Amino acid sequence: MIAILKKLLALAIFIMIFGSLQVHAAKKPVEVECEVKDGSLIVADVYYPNEKKQKYATIVLLHSLGYSSQRWSDFANSIADAGYLVVAIDLRGHGRSVYNSKLVRQSWANFKRSVFKKYPDDILEVLRVVKEEHPRASFEDWGIVGADIGANTAVLVAEKAKFKPKTLVLISPHESHKGLFIPIAIVNIGKIPILTISSENDKTCLKSQNNLKKYAQSDFVITNFKTNITGMLMLGANPTIPALIINWLEGHVAQYK
């Protein structure tokens, strides 16, 4: 009897541990590949929430210079857990977006500013493909989270997009980054609430935040943290930042029932 009880106890512990791992296991995203006008191949991941709906409000993630969308994976899953569909895009020259249709490799490290200026159009083309392949993704109720060059790209995407995002979250934004100048775009996007986050030790971004606020046509909230890390890496360094961003998104991007 004791031996049986021990086996049952061991089985119960195994189920508890395995079940916990299953609940907290990262969701596997769906890959989307898009060939843009000049033949470059841009790759993105689409993360679905567990709850099935006819439509999902959508959050787009644009990573820091020199990194990739894979750095967002934990954060992307947290946003999906909050009920949003997430599109995490590898910017041109980063991650899986390093080839053209002829399989010629291209790296951001060798780009001229004229190439970086293609980023907003790259993103809009990817979102067009996502909309076609994932019709449950809504781009009427959506938002963008971008870090450093991803932040600047986010503003320019919002300026060009037919349906304006409901909000932007800009992590370590610059007035101009690799030729992506955004003060005028901040004016042109109109009444879109913006949350900005920077490190208190990043003097360049602190100055940019204050200057960009002068151009804002709606709420422009500045939140800074004591850290030596900038860009998307701030999310891993300070666990309160992901929660702050998700709370902001929930306050500005409506969910579907």
What tags apply to this protein structure?
about 260 residues, alpha/beta, Rossmann fold, two-stranded antiparallel ribbon, 11 strands, disordered N terminus
If you had to describe this structure to a student in words, what would you say it looks like?
The protein is an alpha/beta fold and 257 residues long. It has one domain (29-252): Rossmann fold (3-Layer(aba) Sandwich). Helices cover 38% and strands 23% of the residues. It contains 9 helices and 11 strands. Strands 1, 2, 3, 4, 5, 6, 7, 10 and 11 form a 9-stranded mixed β-sheet that branches. The chain has a two-stranded antiparallel ribbon with strand order 8-9. Strand 1 and strand 2 form a beta hairpin. The longest helix is centred in the first third of the chain and has 23 residues, at 2-24. It is globular and about 40 Å long. Mean pLDDT is 90; it is low at 1-25.
Task: Give a short summary of the structure.
The protein has 257 residues and is an alpha/beta fold.
**CATH class (first level) name:** Alpha Beta
Task: Round the Cα radius of gyration to an integer and report it.
Answer: 20 Å
From the 3D structure, determine the CATH topology: Rossmann fold
The pLDDT mean sits at 90
Which residue ranges are poorly predicted, with pLDDT under 50 across at least 5 consecutive positions?
1-25
Q: What structural class do you assign from the helix and strand content?
A: alpha/beta
Order of helices and strands: HEEEHEEHHEHEEEHEHEHH
- How many alpha or pi helices? 9
Number of domains: 1
Strand content: 15-25%
Q: What is the global morphology? A: globular
Assembly level: single chain
